[in-house]
Each structure stands twice: as C-alpha cells, then as structure tokens.
Amino acid sequence: MPEHLVHEHIDLTKGIIQQLSHPFFAGRDLSLHVLRLDLIHPVISGNKWFKLKNYIAEALKQQKKGILSFGGAWSNHILATAFACREAGLSSTGIIRGEEPPQLSHTLRDAARYGMELRFTGRASYSRHLQEWEQWQASWPDHLIVPEGGQGEAGVAGAATIGQLIPPGQYSHIACAAGTGTMMAGLIRSREPGQLVMGISALKIDPGNNSIADHIRRHTGEEPILFHDYHFGGYARINAELVQFMNDLYASCQLPTDIVYTGKLLYALFHLAAAGYFPKGGTILAIHSGGLQGNRSLKKDNLIF
Ligand SMILES: *Cc1c(COP(=O)(O)O)cnc(C)c1O
Question: pTM for this structure?
Fold first, then answer.
C-alpha cells in the first residue's frame, strides 16, 4: 500500500524529543523528555495518525468509498479522520455524539471543511455503536467503519509504531495519556524489556468498570499501570489550577499542552515526581500525543499560547 501517496505531508522527523530543562526534575535526579508527536502534522496531529494509518490503508485496499467513524464535538480523531481521508481520496462520515448544536464547534467546522459529512446522533444510540457494529456495517457497505478513537487491532498495531521514534536504551519510563487506551496498548507492545509504560487516564473511570484497563489487557495480555486521579473532575473538565500549570509549563519550557490529555499527563508527572514515585536516576519519556486544536474550546485569554 503506497503510504507515501496517502500522507506525504506527515513528517515523522519533526517528531523530535524535547528535553525539559526544568529544575524540578533535575533536582530530584530525574530526567523528563517529551516526544513531540504534536509536531508531525499541522492537522493530523499526535497519536491520531498512528492509530488511523492502518484503517486508511485497509479502506483503500478494500476499495471502499470512504471511512465512517465516531466522536464528540471537539474530537481530535474526527478532525484527523476528515483530513486524512481527504488526502487519501476517500470520503468521510462522522457520527457525532449528541444533538446538532445551533453552532458547530471549531473542530466540527474544520472537519466539514475537509469534506466530512456530519451526522448527529443521540447520546444513547451513540454509546451503543460498538455493540451495534454489524448494523452500522450493513447500513454503510461502501464505508470502512472505524470505532471511536481508532480503537481496535489496526489502531493498536499502528500505535505500536510510535515505538520506532523512541531511541533504545534511554528511558526507564514511557508515560502517556489514556482515553481508550489504544495508544498505551501499542506502546506496551513496542517497549523494551524492563521499561515501564504508564498511563494517565483522561476519563473519570468507574473502578468496577475499567474500560481502559480491559481494552489494554485484551490487546496486550498485560496488566496496565494506570493512574486515575488526574482527570480534574472528568473527561475534558478543567480548573484554574490545571490552566495555571499549563501556562507555567509553557513559560518555563516552551511546551504547549492540551486541556484534555497532555496537560493532565504532564501535571501528573510533576505530581508523581514530587510524591517520590520515580526511583532516583529515572529517565522518563512523556508522549506528547497532540490535541492542541481542542484548546480552542477555551476562552481566548485563558492560555498564554
Ligand atoms: C485521542 C488522544 C489521546 C488518547 O488516545 P487513546 O489511544 O484513545 O488512549 C491522547 N492524547 C491526545 C492528544 C489525543 O488526541
């Protein structure tokens, strides 16, 4: 499959590793580096390209007309799917959670501009989409149906290729944000022996129904190291402390983060380091999985970047 034709604009060499020269880590005999996947493409940013690329290839191989996928009003996955499909010469349909609002979010407006057909669906029927998979497929025979967030084996296998951008023998810990856990499952598959992969949940998880841990176990056979105390009240919830932290981090290290995933990931790493979680000499690589476009849901003057 001619991947270069599909995404000649994706530039993995831009996915540099930024060494955070923050006294907070050095003073604790720790180092924190960040893999900047947010820089590989202006629209298809972060982990979404990795999770999508096998689905795009599959749609082309099966000679589908397009891809149909699912997401919320600020979904990074929906936006990346719209753009990636356009570049691949595929049409795209987005099934959007909730009723159609009087005014579309910036994200959905952009997705529509990239040619995505948007269809709004009530929250209840949206949340059944995984169970009603066969109906979706039967109704859209000329589309490849991609689950929310690109979860599924093709997404995990794609996310595992993030490991190719991580230099060997350098890191004791790989840290990432977790939404569905697809990226984390891929990172677990591609890690080196002895390396710990840790995930910071962006969702408020019901302990009796840990969809992230289940997903990762199913795809890796391993028990994931997940932290559930850094969601700031739930998915996409924020408070003044988080925004202040993100602004301070940008001011001190020129690292922009997003309010849903990477801001909370970095906050957690500082918090865990302060609490003595990491052994001395620990070398931590945080995955910047992108998502900066979602910051447009904030009021303009909240963030300094
Ligand atoms: C989608 C997304 C995630 C979550 O990835 P999963 O594979 O669903 O866990 C993390 N960070 C960013 C910026 C994302 O857009």
Answer: 0.96
